[in-house]
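Note on ligand handling. Small-molecule inputs were canonicalized before submission; formal charges were left as drawn, and no protonation-state enumeration was performed. Where a ligand contained multiple stereocentres, the stereochemistry in the source SMILES was retained. For pyridoxal-5'-phosphate, this procedure yielded the string shown in the input block below.
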Amino acid sequence: MQKTLRERDEAVVWHPFTQMKTAGPAIPVVSGNGVELFDEEGNCYLDVIASWWMTLHGHGHPYIAKRIAEQANKLEHVIFASFTHEPAIELAERLLDKLPANQSKIFYSDNGSTSCEVAVKMCFQYWHNKGDKRKKMIALDDAYHGDTFGAMSVGGRGPFVEPFMPFLFDVAFIDAPVAGEEEKVLKQLEGILKGGDVAGFIFEPLVQGSAGMRMYSPEVLEKMLSMCKEYGVLTVADEVMTGFGHLGKFFAVDYVDTKPDIICMSKGLTGGTMAMGATSCTQDIFDAFWDDEFLNAFLHGHSATGNPLACAAALASMDLMDNPETQKNIDRIASRNAEFAKKLEQYPIYANVRHIGVILAMEVVTDEENNYFNSLRDTIWQFLIKKGLLMRPLGNTVYILPPYCITDEQLDKAYDAIIELAGFLTKN
Ligand SMILES: Cc1ncc(COP(=O)(O)O)c(C=O)c1O
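Structure output:
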């Protein structure tokens, strides 16, 4: 008898962030259309978390597909050292148009982790090239910048990185500057900056996604950035999750006046259709590598750097971002989330309901700690997936971050499910 996709998958595939023994089979998705995903049995799932915060304009977008296909017929790939191509040039031009005015060069890689890895290496080598070999990065507690070793090193030191702890480089962590903690965190930051030897400060601007959609204010970020500038320390905004409209503005750093020196991008960069990372930097940083000495160059690269298909997808996604309908949709989702957040005040099972841009998040109140390992995670996941909602919780944090094409009816389905979940959890 012919095996199902589930059976074939179980036999040969190892999935990310998954305990393969206990997780049960993965759901085999065969097609996608807008916010909808369809499995091999024809079941429909509403993807209201944009498949790990990737999908900006919906699945199976015909315009992006067409642009990738056209590019595939022209040039699918070319080595990006010694060679270049128009899609990569045009994408850099268009990104720089959207990025803060202090950004002047784009370095391509292949995912969010590598965009951060590049940023951290740029910071260290910037000082190295200047003969000032600084050894410290500052990062936020519970930060997530990816799973390669540099990105892991500047990430929070939780159970996920426990087996690798001896191999991570030292980082000075400060608390997240959430409401009420701002003054304390500013003091922590100043204390570390005063100690010297700091190459850079890396942060997820305004929302720490993996930490459970933890939010903090533009005002405190502004103060942190200007403090780093005062001490001559480089600043790196990891916009991998926050970029491309998720927080209402194109980039999260559009909410502050003091701009970072380096910005990391991925996920929404290609509208979520192709793997791609990009790291932008100021002219000052680029100039620190500009030398007659070869070894002062940034000797970093990936085989798929600047892949033309990924660039074509990103350019198509930029066209869609430039369509005024997209901003209207972002604003529509943001205001509907705000309205729904008010409604949620009647549900004591939900605490800390918060929203910015298209993100709406809340914690389910439990006796356990609010974190990824909260035992309610599986209960919440099972409840929502049975209702046809792909709303993978972060522990006991329930959230939505939908593609911008979500309709009001589809949003209502997500909101209704959140209310039904409250009823279910209160009873059980
Ligand atoms: C803020 C942030 N940085 C970096 C990453 C890593 O990106 P990737 O999974 O593409 O390596 C993520 C992934 O969720 C992220 O949220």
